[in-house]
Amino acid sequence: MRDDKVIIFDTTLRDGEQAAGAAMTLEEKLEIAKQLERLKVDVIEAGFAASSPGDFLAVSTIAKEIRTPTIASLSHASLPAVDKAAEALKEARNPRIHVFLSSSDIHIMHQLRKSREEVMDMAVAAVARAKTYYDDIEFSPMDATRTEPEYLYTLLEAAIDAGATTVNIPDTVGYIIPEEFGQLLVNIQENVPNIAKAIISVHCHNDLGLSVSNSLAAVKYGARQIEGCINGLGERAGNASLEEVIMGLVTREDFFNINLGIDTSQLYRTSRLVSDITGFSVQPNKAIVGQNAFRHASGIHQDGVLKDRSTYEIMSPESVGVPSSTLVLGKLSGRAGLRSRLEELGYDLNQDDLNKAFEDFKNLADKKREITDRDLEALISDRRRVDVELYKLEHVQVSCGDHEIPTATVRLTNPEGVTLTDAATGTGPVDAVYVAINRILGVPNTLKEFSIGSITEGTDSIGDVTIRIESNGRIYTGRGSSTDIMVASAKAYLNALNKLMSIEGTPIQ
Ligand code: KIV
Ligand code: ZN
Fold first, then answer.
1. Number of C-alpha atoms within 13 angstroms, CB side, residue 353?
2. How far, in Å, CA of 81 to CA of 445, rounded?
């Protein structure tokens, strides 16, 4: 008998963004939020409204635009922070304020430098204030799994009395072991007298690689909300990977006996989007969404799968939306073929975007004989980036070779459409391109990481460049793809600089 629903709470845009180097622009967050809505997550934590004007804008924009899931803002346990969260959420159809405050002695003594009583008062006051705005209030005692149990029970009871409708038990430092976590949840249910008035949630970090196991164990012991991030993004080693939690619950429905409202066929697409935007690639052997997750390599396995897929497959690639074919289109393919393949891949493009995609596709088909699903994904991602950029790349020309001084000419257009051109030499062609861009834009930054990969096999493959640059202590990630790796490198650098400028402002020219 299936009688219980588990709420899926996605925090890719908040905890996920806290991963070093995962900062996202407003447009990127909105794009991910739209995809999370297609995935049918129940709650999207859109940011931490009081933490910065950028986060405030992200929460308020997502609250306005995304109508089906609940939209949550994280908030410190302080009245002004709660007020900010409430303001950012005012246009949400289903708003939630998520108040957090450390509860372990380690945090209380060494970080907050307060007494347990003071922490209790702050938590109650913040939850009560949040309740004056909205009904749906979540409370998280941070570092709950290292909190003295009796204190944790009292704090949870007080938060529920003050109006919390969800109480979250964060394993903030990824310390607990599944069996222990299950017991903690049982103890909470036995020792918090008003616990039945709230939903128990868990939020597991992955420092020991146990975040998914802990989340699944928690469901078995009564948790009815799981928090996590797509691709397991998040602070340090990350949060529970939502695609793994979801498919664990779905595939082992016989064991968990619960309901989920998720459209699992959107998981692959969501993972690709998050990876593309953050520049955090998904390891090939990653469960559910890795490139090899459904590939059978050994002869015995292939033989078994050919006879009956269930011999070595516990879930189908289609169930998580992994595209079934890899070879798709070529030079002679038309607009209808492209549209239908994109739809199969989960893209829902309007006419204008389809026209742009078709133009990009035709340009690529002139250079590359066979166009695969991965190529199409790269084209769409590249176009998505270019369309929102402040400065656009118009032209790159490079001359290099073993007897040449690498020289690059770059032409950009600024947001007013004015053309800006410069040329430079460098130690290599990429350096020359980057120096030329620096001469045009004059934005100080430090290059932290540059990596280049190819989307598919073959020398005619699209090159895919990821770079990270640092400015004022913040890391900005840029991506670019093209069959010409100099163009891909220029696009990636400009993409990172555009993000930097959208947050820190543009230079005077
Ligand atoms: O890890 C944590 O404790 C958190 C809280 C803010 C829920 O992210
Ligand atoms: Zn966290």
1. 17
2. 32
**Residue 509 above 80 pLDDT?**
no
Q: Is residue 203 within 6 Å of ligand 1 at its C-beta? A: yes
Atom of ligand 1 lying closest to residue 235 CA: 1
Check if 201 has its Cβ closer than 6 Å to any atom of ligand 1.
no
Is the pLDDT score of 131 beyond 60?
A: yes
Ligand 1 pocket check for 104: Cβ under 6 Å: no
Give the pLDDT score at 487. 96
pLDDT, average across residues 132-150: 98
| Ligand 1 pocket member 48 (CB < 6 A) | no
Domain boundaries defined on the chain:
7-278, 323-385, 389-504
What angle (nearest 5°) sits at the alpha carbon of residue 262, between those of residues 260 and 264? 120
Q: What's the pTM value of the predicted model, to 2 decimals?
A: 0.90
Would you give the distance in Å from CA 250 to the centre of its chain? 21
CATH architecture of 389-504: 2-Layer Sandwich (3.30)
CATH architecture of 7-278: Alpha-Beta Barrel (3.20)
Ligand 1 pocket residue status of 100, Cβ below 6 Å: yes
Backbone angles phi, psi at 228, to 5 degrees: -175, -175
Pocket test for ligand 1, best of 18, 137, 171, 205 (most atoms within 8 A of CB): 205
Query: Stretch 376-384: mean pLDDT, rounded?
Result: 89
The span from the CA of 35 to the CA of 108, in Å, is 38
